[in-house]
Amino acid sequence: xxxxxxxxxxxxxxxxxxxxxxxxxxxxxxxxxxxxxxxxxxxxxxxxxxxxxxxxxxxxxxxxxxxxxxxxxxxxxxxxxxxxxxxxxxxxxxxxxxxxxxxxxxxxxxxxxxxxxxxxxxxxxxxxxxxxxxxxxxxxxxxxxxxxxxxxxxxxxxxxxxxxxxxxxxxxxxxxxxxxxxxxxxxxxxxxxxxxxxxxxxxxxxxxxxxxxxxxxxxxxxxxxxxxxxxxxxxxxxxxxxxxxxxxxxxxxxxxxxxxxxxxxxxxxxxxxxxxxxxxxxxxxxxxxxxxxxxxxxxxxxxxxxxxxxxxxxxxxxxxxxxxxxxxxxxxxxxxxxxxxxxxxxxxxxxxxxxxxxxxxxxxxxxxxxxxxxxxxxxxxxxxxxxxxxxxxxxxxxxxxxxxxxxxxxxxxxxxxxxxxxxxxxxxxxxxxxxxxxxxxxxxxxxxxxxxxxxxxxxxxxxxxxxxxxxxxxxxxxxxxxxxxxxxxxxxxxxxxxxxxxxxxxxxxxxxxxxxxxxxxxxxxxxxxxxxxxxxxxxxxxxxxxxxxxxxxxxxxxxxxxxxxxxxxxxxxxxxxxxxxxxxxxxxxxxxxxxxxxxxxxxxxxxxxxxxxxxxxxxxxxxxxxxxxxxxxxxxxxxxxxxxxxxxxxxxxxxxxxxxxxxxxxxxxxxxxxxxxxxxxxxxxxxxxxxxxxxxxxxxxxxxxxxxxxxxxxxxxxxxxxxxxxxxxxxxxxxxxxxxxxxxxxxxxxxxxxxxxxxxxxxxxxxxxxxxxxxxxxxxxxxxxxxxxxxxxxxxxxxxxxxxxxxxxxxxxxxxxxxxxxxxxxxxxxxxxxxxxxxxxxxxxxxxxxxxxxxxxxxxxxxxxxxxxxxxxxxxxxxxxxxxxxxxxxxxxxxxxxxx
Length: 900
Ligand code: PEP
Ligand code: MG
Hints:
- 45% of the residues lie in helices and 17% in strands.
- The protein is of the alpha/beta class.
- The strands form seven sheets. The chain has an eight-stranded mixed β-sheet with strand order 15-25-24-17-18-19-20-16. It has an eight-stranded parallel barrel with strand order 27-28-29-30-31-32-33-34, surrounded by seven helices.
- It is elongated and about 105 Å long.
- The model has no long low-confidence stretch (mean pLDDT 92).
- The structure holds phosphoenolpyruvate and magnesium ion (MG).
- The site of phosphoenolpyruvate has 10 residues, from strand 28 and helix 31.
């Protein structure tokens, strides 16, 4: 551990800088940077993340140097501020805040007004001239401190609604009700004095300890509690979701208090240098007069807009900062420009105005939704703030999902009954059944239900339920409330500040417009407009083609990427959708899906029931024209692009019914006895069907199946080619493990194809290649490539067979493995580069050793996973293939891989 554990900042100087996020956390590093930029920052110091990790390891002890370094830094601050911490005549107060490397909004703790004690209160009253202000600050300190330090950090876990903060809030409400006070500011100094006494008694009664009356005890209590909050329940659960390592730890920032609640020439607010919901280049933010930071986020008072362009329906009638305090606003707007130029990215800032003087409390790269991320990247590049390459890296590929978001069907929406309106915090449409707690949301979603989490306001304790929900609806809060921030980060449909809702989470009921809605009732949200509807409205797929910024970004991506992007599609509709999303061919057409249609399953079953080749051929004859029709549709949709069609893969028992009733029905339809069906099902039974009679093993034992499929493919190709469609069929053999297997199937395919071509008198170039999805095929790829004209890695099966995890049964243990970190990621979602990746890399090398320009792709689920796409780029594949909606994501991921 480094000797230096405390970093000072203030008065245009700083020990640290913006690059030191690992050591100082995001907040500390940026406070140092702002201070160096001569932006007004209240002076303070940062205790490093190293101290946090040490503190956790040593069981709550500090390194011995720390106390002395904190004292020395405090002295520097006192000198600048010309006042002293704990001094009765001229007291200095501190705030203590967490600050991890990457922002974890609201997940950890903040304690304000540290240093208010019976000794310093009179001094601060004299200094500020406002008894009301001092007691208001004091009641906030008691509230935060008892909650964070005395309860949470002490490991006390009260029942829902019984936490100390809740109980103190309840006391405050009681007092307000007794006085007929509507808002907090209606309470006067005497009321607050009374309240402080009530608070202290309540703290003692519930937590069995006195609220500390010593400034140093308060400071060190707060520092320890912030460190401990790193391992608090909600912080841990947020880290799991966001994939933030536990080892990082948090820094602690101790900073001079500035007050936004000292009177009407004081204010506090949060702002974004651009609109985080749309990406538009306008200064956007909210503030409250005579308030402290928590008031803006808590959503108890309606926040005012910082300027005229930020006004919403809710803040329309309230004066903006621009009008109310023009000088401060002008300075703030200048700082906005300075920060964007310096950081070259949109910033999320916090400020406080004390006695008409502006202070910046924080700046960080602002979270944004996908729509905004794309627009900002393009516009910043066009203004030459960033390069094209940087612009491409500014959008996380997954964020494109939000542009591809479904919306409520406008026709149905027009007719639907509006329940209420609120602020549009997260775009797109969301429909689901109402649940009132985060735990219920998670539990219901696990059962496969679509839910909307409805809360008065969300807190960081709710994140797991917010994640599980389709959408989030809150009665309180503004555009910078917790719900809004979190939903925006995830690109989830969300409406906040929906004041017309009267919610009782304990009774699981919500009243609105004289109507009662209960748990399980359906509602629909338009998160783009902020409207809540009764019942279930249809969802329409998104139309990204109308978004000019998106189109530009994708154009840049396509120019830079080296990997081609194809799609997995087995019908013309999906093929067209994927082509609209930019797919450059089909990488996998699974033909088995075509046999399940009501017009085909009977012929398929007839083939399975047949006792000999002649019987099978007869049934296959019926399937041939149907298959041909399927391929004609797909070839037309993919005119000019390659189409890889895979021969039959799954074990045959999948096509037969298992239950008695369906077996009886099938027997009747086919004119055979139920016993005959049962016998067949019995004879097809396998102990391990995934490792059994499937893939090329089917085609080898029943070559007439492969022959029929190839005949259908090539006949379809001839037919459309005659009409001018450009076809590039690629016939793909599944589950090959040896060269001989492929040789066998290639022979059947080529003989059939040549016969068809000769008969039709058409020349069509086709290829025969193989899936590489069995480890042995990867290991012997040099031999397999002697026969295969292309490779396509089936990483679903390759993962299954490399790990030895059954794809169908892994659900029994994978969640446990992930939770307990036996695995760091689900290998069926993101490619296991260390293990399975070796086989892929080796397969490509050996394959190309035999056939230099062997075309190689991937068609397992990993083909649409950004990290896996990057891997595919690195190992030199020609293309990735993924489901239609992931095509844009793969295009961007491929471009990012090329830039990196
Ligand atoms: C694979 O195994 O990766 C693959 C694409 O085939 P399927 O998922 O159909 O087994
Ligand atoms: Mg497979």
